């Protein structure tokens, strides 16, 4: 999938302007010439310049390639749905991990992902459960990473 | 020379070699897991070494960190997900070799040149440590600044494709580096009140996000053509070493 440089440049330009303006809100250090805002401001200027070059280059080739040329997967509903589910799973994982706890969340997310990626249905749940417990054991018990227990807190070990 | 012979005699003992071997296996394991670095392997090993004699302890630490850095190449070559930050630079190339069925040559080259580089570095350190220390002490902010500039410009110019895009990714990287409290003014920049962002964005989460997550997306979209390829047998790692030695 290829996106015209002009669109990338426009997005970058918006980003650069936002960063530059936001950087102006950082407080200056009293009695010093250089504060926290200097470096981000420079970056935003340079990024803005680069995005203008990208826009100029992209506009020149606009006629031949158009705005976006889609790859084959972008027209296939199956692939798009798989991508959407994956992204949604990652976001849901971030939101749900702390209230629900590591073991149930990971179990569900892994099972859905395995199912999506065409693992044989019989072994999906045992595989997800086994991997979850393996990660739980190696990181929580061996490496002492404080993984959240969530709803399983009463049975925590 | 006597000192080197004495040192060799202290190392070539069964229990020292056994310790080194076990540390190597541990380093291999930690280094090959994306997200766990050589530093972490060493940090995990240090408490264990308190109960050892000095020679096996130091041997174990050195072996473990060297092995972990090399082991980062293994997932990088086979899955395009670098195991340690050190392997990130050539992950794409190594993976491309695996695609062409040259996985063992890529891994062999990684192993050979990791070992050669490590041995060469050690040799230089043995011979020239005092002078190197004097040079290193001369390094001040100016030298570090120009060193960083050199590295960054190299990254832009060497990067494939258009230079503007290289510059853009460089600038985005610099922007990500400004996030957090770590600036001379001590002002939280771009944290939006999030405590986790105050420490800045670490190398490891960035690497996992850039390499591992993008590889998973690629896999989900079925762009990896090796979905049904099954597992090819990894051949002898030592093939082609003689040729590589001569060529490079």
Detailed description of the structure:
Chain A has 157 residues and is mainly alpha-helical. Chain A has 6 helices and 2 strands, in the order βαααβααα. Chain A has a two-stranded antiparallel sheet with strand order 1-2. In chain A, helix 1 runs antiparallel to helix 2 and helix 5 (102-116) runs antiparallel to helix 6. Chain A is flat. The model of chain A has no long low-confidence stretch (mean pLDDT 82). Chain B has 248 residues and is mainly alpha-helical. Chain B has 12 helices and no strands. In chain B, helix 2 runs parallel beside helix 4 and helix 3 (38-49) packs antiparallel against helix 4. Residues 224-231 of chain B have low confidence and may be disordered. Classes of the chains: A mainly alpha (157), B mainly alpha (248). The interface between A and B is medium-sized, with 30 and 24 residues.
Write the layout of secondary structure elements.
The complex is a heterodimer of chains A (157) and B (248).
Chain A: E1 2-3, H1 5-23, H2 38-60, H3 62-65, E2 68-69, H4 77-100, H5 102-116, H6 121-142
Antiparallel strand pairs in A: 1-2
Helix pairs in contact in A: 1-2, 4-5, 5-6
Chain B: H1 2-11, H2 14-32, H3 38-49, H4 54-71, H5 73-79, H6 91-99, H7 103-138, H8 141-158, H9 163-178, H10 195-198, H11 203-220, H12 241-247
Please give a quick description of this structure.
The complex is a heterodimer of chains A (157) and B (248). With 157 residues, chain A is an all-alpha fold. In chain A, 68% of the residues lie in helices and 3% in strands.
Low-confidence stretches of chain A: none
**How much strand content do the residues of chain A show?**
under 5%
Question: What strand line-up does the widest sheet of chain A have?
Answer: 1-2
Helix-strand pattern of chain A, N to C? EHHHEHHH
The major sheet of chain B is characterized as: none
Distance between the termini of chain A: 48 Å
Helix content of chain B: over 70%
For the secondary structure, the number of strands of chain A is 2
Radius of gyration of chain A: 24 Å
State the distance separating the first and last CA atoms of chain B.
30 Å
For the CA atoms, what is the radius of gyration of chain B?
21 Å
C-alpha geometry of chain B: globular
Number of E-state strands of chain B: 0
